[in-house]
Structure formats: structure tokens, C-alpha cells
Design goal:
Elements: H1 3-10, H2 13-28, H3 37-50, E1 54-58, E2 62-68, E3 71-81, H4 108-124, E4 130-138, H5 147-153, E5 164-175, E6 179-181, E7 184-187, E8 191-198, E9 202-203, H6 213-231, E10 238-246, E11 253-254, E12 257-266, H7 269-289, E13 293-299, E14 305-307, H8 309-323, E15 328-330, H9 340-346, E16 349-357, H10 378-395
Length: 399
């Protein structure tokens, strides 16, 4: 069967309008990480309506829809995340979020709508398929430890481990209709750093009587930047940033404690462990040398996301075949993080990007901002390519 032709025939204007309506419904009713109860119910109701079986719950709100072909074969999984962000929407859309202080500012509504569309299409083609497709609706991508790791711990693939897993993610600076791929290292690990620098505070005019934690924290910040940058391995992207410094003193009052909060990101798991030890050693050494001490907590976040070389090359070739070479782009690495990395540690996998910017749009409405918005014409690309890549990965033993 020519799956390309069949998928294109099923992508009718009426069908795309239905997917747009689904996306808007999801966008109007966002829910925070691990609390996606209405979102999960909405998805399950659609699957029930379409006669598609699923397993539920995983991590309370997650589910896995199943489409089985007529004969035995490979198993391919597809993932979409369900949670929103604690952001007050200011996009001006007619279907703006109705939940105060919560917004789908990372495109997860588009991810879910695209996968629902792909499920609907592939369910109509299942009699021509061999093998099994699993569609993972995942909670809590935006919050540690990440819903992907928890779903794996709850055994979503214990029944059968997929041969491959894929996901798409919107990209606001890429034009709608375009997609992007990168094999190998693609997105960084992400850890949260919390340092409490402890000293002896007092009057700002009497520095000889205190052990100044503000001064200690200043030295720690500068030294950490210098040492981490100097000792990071050649060719390994690394970022250490501190976005929050809390002293709670006054113009003439030195506090007893200063809090530093930041993020550490890299593309190498071995260096990641070394850097954690180095951060602790530097912070503790400086604090003690200046008459204080520090308490350090590193909250391990998501792992490096590595796209399987073979799957990515295969998917890119199929995307070119389906969409045309002129709209398939090569991506650079990104220091942002994604808990899809947990899945790619367990299963050969790949995440690709979906452009959502209007072609004539000059301003980019970035992810994780109150003004994020997407050109809904991207949904046609998102649905069709996800369906095509899923079925091609399922049918091709060499992918």
C-alpha cells in the first residue's frame, strides 16, 4: 500500500478543522504538571468515540493508546506531553486560556492535537499494517522528575518494549510547514543548583566583626563560572547560570545567609557527574576559607537527549519524501532540556521539530512566554508527518 497517498487522502479540510477545534479546546483548558485530569478525560473520551483502546492510568493522568495491525511485526511508540505552564496568557487569541495563571506556552496542546489526528488516521489504515503502534500521552514534562521517568518506572513498556520511539516539538522561530532534524546529541541535561552560603551577619559598617556571606557568595559565583568553563571538556557544550540570588539584608545590614539558585546543563553525562563534584568542592572551599560554610543541593534533572542516528536519518529521508526537501531543515544543538531524554535512554528514539511561525511574521513569539502563539496551519504538517513517520518506522525493519 502507498501510505503516503492514503494519508494525504485522509487529510481533508474538514478533518483538519476538527483537529484545530481539538487543539483550541485543549488550549482553553490547560492544566499544570501531574494535574492534567480534565485533559486526560478529554483525550479518553475522543479515543472512546473513535473506538481506540488505551491503557490508563499511568502517573494518575497518563495513558497509552494502542493500534494493532493485522499481523505480527515491529512496535513503534509516539509520545505527546500534556501539561501546561504557570503563566498568565497574554496572546490575545479568541481561544485564550480560561484557567487563570495557566497557559499552554510550550505547544503541548499542538503536540496532543497532532498525535490525536495521527491516531485517527492510522486507525483507519490498521488493516494494512503489521505490528503495533503505541501512543503515549505523558503528564508532567515541565516538572522534575519528569513524567517520562515515572511512566517508565510504572512499566508502560513492560508488556512490550518498542523498537523505536519518536516525538515532535514545536519551534516558534521555524516557519509553519517546515520541520527539523538532528542526529546524535540534540538537547542538554538539566540540573537545578541550590547553594546556601552561611556566615555571620551584622552591621555593614563593622566588617571586621562578621563573616560576610554576601562576599562569599560573590566569590563563589565568579569562581564557579571560571572553573566550570575552564575545565569543561573540549567540544562539550556547557552552561552554568544563576538566576536567583537572595540576601535579604539592607544597605547597612549583612545577613547571616545568602541563597544562590541556578541551572547546570551539558551534553555529556560523564562530565555532568564531574561538574557536580567540582561545583560542590569550589563552593565549600571558598566559604570555609572566608570563615563560613555552605549547604549545596543538586537536583538531578533530565538526561541528555540523544537522537538515534539510524532512526533520525531514516525519518529525515521520509520527511523529505513526504514534504519536499525545501521544508526539511537541519537543526543545531539546543541547551534547553526535554524529559523525552528518559525515553531515548531506554529505547532508540528521536525528537524532531515542527515549525509554527507564520511565513510573513516578523516577531517570534517564544516558548514559555505569555505571548506565545502558533500558526495553526502547522497542524496539518504535524498530523500528516507524524502519521507517515509512524507507519514507515513500523513497516521498515532497517529503520
Amino acid at each position: 500500500m502507498d501510505f503516503k497517498d492514503q494519508i494525504n487522502k485522509l487529510i481533508t479540510p474538514a478533518f483538519i478543522n476538527e483537529i484545530v477545534s481539538i487543539r483550541r479546546q485543549l488550549h482553553k483548558h490547560p492544566e499544570l504538571s501531574f494535574g492534567e485530569h480534565q485533559t486526560s478525560e478529554f483525550i479518553r473520551n475522543l479515543l472512546d468515540k473513535w473506538g481506540i483502546p488505551y491503557r490508563h492510568p499511568y502517573v494518575k493522568t497518563g495513558l497509552v493508546a494502542e493500534i494493532k495491525g493485522k499481523g505480527p511485526g515491529r512496535c513503534v511508540a509516539v509520545r505527546a506531553d500534556m501539561d501546561a505552564l504557570p503563566i498568565q496568557e497574554n496572546s490575545g487569541l479568541d481561544f485564550q486560556s480560561e484557567n487563570n495563571g495557566i497557559m499552554h506556552a510550550c505547544g503541548h496542546d499542538i503536540h496532543m492535537a497532532s498525535m490525536l489526528g495521527a491516531i485517527h488516521i492510522l486507525n483507519q489504515l490498521k488493516d494494512h499494517l503489521k505490528g503495533e503502534l503505541l501512543f503515549v500521552f505523558q503528564p508532567g514534562e515541565e516538572k522534575l522528575p519528569g513524567g517520562a521517568s515515572l511512566m517508565l518506572k510504572e512499566g508502560i513498556f513492560d508488556k512490550r518494549k518498542p523498537d523505536a520511539i519518536i516525538a515532535q516539538h514545536v519551534l516558534p522561530e521555524m516557519e509553519a510547514g517546515h520541520v527539523g532534524f538532528r542526529a546524535g546529541r540534540y538537547m542538554a541535561s538539566s540540573d537545578e543548583i541550590y547553594i546556601s552560603v552561611n556566615g555571620v551577619g551584622g552591621h555593614g559598617a563593622l566588617p571586621q566583626k562578621i563573616s560576610d556571606p554576601v562576599l562569599m557568595a560573590s566569590h563563589i559565583l565568579i569562581s564557579l563560572q571560571q572553573e566550570i568553563n575552564r575545565k569543561s571538556p573540549s567540544g562539550v557544550p556547557t552552561v552554568l547560570s544563576f538566576g536567583k540570588v537572595t540576601a535579604n539584608g539592607a544597605v547597612n545590614v549583612i545577613p547571616d545567609k545568602v541563597m544562590l539558585e541556578g541551572t547546570f546543563r551539558t551534553m555529556d553525562e560523564h562530565w555532568r557527574k564531574q561538574a557536580h563534584a567540582l561545583i560542590e568542592k569550589i563552593a565549600d572551599g571558598i566559604a570555609r576559607s572566608m570563615g563560613g560554610n555552605c549547604d549545596l543541593e543538586i537536583r538531578h534533572g533530565y538526561p541528555v537527549l540523544k537522537n538515534d542516528e539510524r532512526i533520525t536519518r531514516f525519518a529525515k529521508e521520509k520527511a523529505i519524501d513526504f514534504l519536499g526537501a525545501e521544508v526539511v531543515e537541519d537543526m543545531d544543538i539546543r541547551m534547553t532540556a526535554e524529559d523525552f531524554g528518559w525515553f531515548t535512554q531506554a529505547i532508540p528514539g528521536m525528537m524532531y521539530r515542527l515549525g509554527v511561525k507564520k511565513p510573513d511574521q516578523e516577531q517570534v513569539f517564544n516558548l514559555h512566554t505569555p505571548t506565545f502563539s502558533a500558526d495553526e496551519s502547522a497542524l496539518e504538517t504535524g498530523v500528516a508527518l507524524m502519521a507517515y513517520l509512524s507507519v514507515e518506522l513500523l513497516q521498515n525493519e532497517s529503520s
